[in-house]
Amino acid sequence: MGEEFTPRSNRAILIGVALPGMPSWEAEDSLDELGRLADTAELAAVDRIIQPRRRIDPAHYIGKGKAAELKQLAIEREADMIVFDNDLSPAQMRNLENIIKRRILDRSAVILDIFSRHARTHTAQIQVELAQLNYLLPRLTRYWTHLSRQAGGGAIRGMGSAGVRGPGETQLEIDRRLIRRQINTLQAKLKKIGKQMETTRKNRSGIFKVALVGYTNAGKSTLMRALSGSDVLVQDQLFATLDSTTRAVDLDSRHKILLTDTVGFIKRLPHHLFASFRATLEEAVEADLLLHVVDLSFPHCESQIDTVNKVLLDLGLEDRPTLTVYNKADQVDPGRAEQTIAAYATHEHAIAVSAAKRLNLDALREKILSYSVAEELTLDLQVPQAEGRLLAHLHQQGEIIEESYINNEVCLRVRLEKTWAERWQLKRFIAN
User: Is residue 7 helix, strand or coil?
Assistant: First the structure.
């Protein structure tokens, strides 16, 4: 359904608003980010404006007079559409389009289009469709208005041929019910998928789990590829990764982790979109350790860190063990990668790396290992020789420090991860 929100190739004017008390760089940075979003959505930005406002106009967002000026600018720039850096109400969109006579999009519509393009798995496609329907529902009257202007009318995709002779109140209500019904169906599918994912996670319960989180385009997928050696998709685009990807990573000869890449975060991510992707983010909820990947080369990376931390707070992960990985250290200042990395070398819960250049990755592995080892136990066990399968597991997953035999029992001192001890119920074999 993405094409209903953002046509595939259009000349666009980007509009941001600077409100009182906003730092001077914030509006510029946010509009820069909208530019990257537009580029990912294959929109050609022909102009950009930051409009100072004392407050947002409830009817026209930037005010009726500014909207009239924007109409003239759109004519001069031959712009097909206007893209706003914030979410607009259905009424604001309708009023602006009536004045400017151009397609009006907001930030959420562009993000939804990008998500639609990048959704590759069945789960991601369901999540995107659900988010699109939640976006469309309160704007349905507006879309019917567009359709009624077309010769012969038209219909919204997935709704059959309804509305050929014009919308009408009755038909709108029918379509609202259809959308709500589809939303309920998709929510039920995601709930089922969530239960399946939970079962999969339980089967991995004995392995230390690490999740990559961070702002979109911070380099999470590049770091995933560098650590795991896998063929994870890496693109210099916002939201290149939507689906969680899990790979096994060997830290050393004895310690293995499961590393999961998750969808990137962004400022003002639409709530319905966040809610739709919660099933994917559950991988982070189940993680023993979070790697918060930060683009160190971005001048205001602290603001991106704050955005990610707010999302983690919403997920109830504010107290989860977290290692901040300052990525792209080689891009901070040409020739200063080593100095930058050294500056973070003594930080207990932070490290600087370059995933693309594979700089300081060994030290990162050691940092991750320290968290994993902290979850280990040393146990003195007396295991009957008849428990051959358990003994094999202990040798495979643990470090045998001492081993002896008494009668029909194997006496072991073994070091292993706490999760394995819990999974195998080793308390019953602890020596008195």
Answer: coil
Pairing of strands 245-250, 81-84: unpaired
Secondary-structure percent of the chain, ordered helix, strand, coil, rounded to 5: 45, 20, 30
pLDDT tens figures, 393-418: 888 878 889 999 988 899 999 988 77
Contacts of residue 246, defined as CB under 8 A and 6 or more positions apart, other chains included, come to 258, 259, 260, 261, 283
C-alpha 2/C-alpha 110 separation (Å) is: 9
Tell me how far apart the alpha carbons of residues 198 and 182 are, in angstroms, rounded to a whole number.
Answer: 24
Stated length of the chain = 432
Report whether 129 contacts 187 (CB < 8 A): no
Asked whether 44 and 12 are in contact (CB, 8 A), the reply is yes
Strand ranges across the sheet with 208-214: 245-250, 256-261, 208-214, 289-295, 322-327, 350-352
pTM of this structure = 0.72
- Say if residues 135 and 272 touch (Cβ distance below 8 Å): yes
How far apart, in whole angstroms, are the C-alpha atoms of residue 225 and residue 231?
6
Nearest by Cα to 275 from 191, 364, 375: 191
**Considering only CA atoms, which of 61, 118, 67 is closest in space to residue 85?**
61
Does residue 424 contact residue 385 with C-beta atoms inside 8 Å? no
Strand order of the β-sheet with 376-384 is: 376-384, 409-417, 399-406
- Mind listing the pLDDT tens digit for each residue in 139-194? 876 655 544 444 333 333 333 333 333 445 567 787 888 889 999 999 898 888 87
DSSP class of 86:
S
Q: How far is CA 54 from CA 17, 62, 147, 395, in A?
A: 10, 10, 36, 68
**CA–CA separation, 58 and 412 (whole Å):** 72
Rounded distance between C-alpha atoms, residue 83 and residue 105, angstroms: 5
Distance CA 94, CA 277 (A): 29
β partners of residue 345: none
Burial (CB < 10 A; 0-12, 13-18, 19+), residue 229, is exposed
Cα–Cα–Cα angle for 42, 43, 45, rounded to 5 degrees: 140
Chain centre distance of CA 216: 7
> CA-CA distance, 3 to 12, in Å (whole number)?
16
